[in-house]
Amino acid sequence: MSVNENSDIQYNKNFWAEDHCDLKKSPPTIEYTSRYHDKADEFTYLGLNENPNGPTNEMKQDLLAAAEQINRYPDNHFTELSHAVEKNTGVSPHEQIWGAGASDLIQRVVTTNFREGLNIISPAPTFWGYERVYNIINADVTRVILKPDGHTDVDAMIDAIAPNTGVMTFSTPANPSGLAVPEADIIKFATDTPDHILLLVDEVYVEYAAFDGATDMVALLRKYRPNGKWLILRSFSKAYAMAGARIGYGLASDQDLAARLENDTINFTVSSLAFAAALPAYLDNQRLTKILSENKQQRVKFEADLQSLGLEYLQPSANFISVKMPREASYYIEKLFNNKIVCAGWNDPNFPNYLRVALTNDEERIKFISALKLLLA
Asked: Does residue 233 contact residue 239 with C-beta atoms inside 8 Å?
């Protein structure tokens, strides 16, 4: 049946022109900044927790080699990379899912849950990508506010479980706090979340936490949730410095879960070029260790700078730090932008004063601290 002027069906003709694509809600990338400033390349970008390291020569060479076959569709299953992940994690390729970044996998899980009419329990605030997906599909979400100290409130989240709950999700280290969820709380999530509910664990920053001595998540969940559903999300965007490639993966509790999530997406979500660059990055343990060591050094320097300014901050286990400012973060974000520095806030009314800043290198840290010092004077 077609819809016409005389139809009883109410159709919003302006639907495609409404504010669903508000550019001001976009992530603070270089391209985004160029819409508002003609010298975007002169800015310091500390708002997306990006890794300052560029690709290695081996990554570039593998990209060029893969480009020779760019006319062919990629193989998103059982690649050399998936076998490398198996060797490192003990999770077989049949229990892995791959996507265009962890965000792709988040959308896949939330959409599948939504189709079943089920509820999601999520910490708040959380990574903006979750909220974006929740809003896109109008998901049924129970948001549980973080504790005043920024930690995930595991007890409140467990108490929020309802008969229609399909997904329980948390991140460690968490975004936007940067805090790692204590092992005891992870065990409580694993044991107290009913087995039929999918426990979605976002470990995009896992390499940084592991460098600090965090327990392996796969081992924890296999021990404390042996019969339950779980999915661990990981990414190449942060520690592997490949945010522009858009590649991430999930480690599933079983083959059935992985197959379900693979079936609930389109084909060829990860490009052959992304796979080509990711393999040498994943295998280069020396580079990874160097990146993690430098990040830890920057963290120590950043904390000392903040202490000298008399500012409170949360102890991070990631490549960014959250700073509690004397007034709302939005004030400092605007002022810093005028100084060609891009930062982010938590975007949550319960935590209005927290500013989130990436840990990168000496030059960018000094520029940020110098600008902040002037604003606090």
From this structure: no
On whether both 275 and 295 belong to a single domain, the answer is: no
| Number of Cα atoms under 13 Å in the Cβ half of residue 274 | 24
Residues 252 and 331 in one domain: no
C-alpha 53: how far from its chain's center? 18
Last residue of a domain, one of 254, 283, 312: 283
Taking the CB of residue 17, how many other CB atoms lie within 10 A of it? 9
C-alpha 56/C-alpha 276 separation (Å) is: 12
Residue 1 lies in a domain: no
- Work out the number of other CB atoms within 10 angstroms of the CB of residue 355: 27
User: Of 283, 300, 330, which residue sits at a domain end?
Assistant: 283
DSSP 3: -
| Burial 236-275, CB ≥16 within 10 A → b, else e | bbbbbbbbebbbbbbbbbeeebbebbbeebeeebbbbbbb
CA distance 44 to 365: 10
The domain containing residue 79 runs over which residues? 57-283
Same domain for 276 and 291: no
If residue 304 lies in a helix (H) or strand (E), which one and from where to where?
helix 285-308
Q: How far is CA 38 from CA 1, 31, 34, 172, 335, in A?
A: 49, 11, 6, 37, 17
Q: Residues 187-231: pLDDT tens digits? A: 999 999 999 999 999 999 999 999 999 999 999 999 999 999 999
The candidate with the shortest Cα–Cα distance to 344, out of 58, 121, 49, 14, is: 49
pLDDT in tens, 11-70: 565 655 555 444 455 677 888 888 878 888 899 999 999 999 999 999 999 999 999 999
**326: phi then psi, degrees, rounded to nearest 5:** -65, -25
The answer to the question of residue 11 being in a domain is no
Closest CA to 192 of 170, 164, 161, 167: 161
- Report d(CA 303, CA 306) in Å as an integer: 5
The answer to whether 99 and 133 are in contact (CB under 8 A) is: no
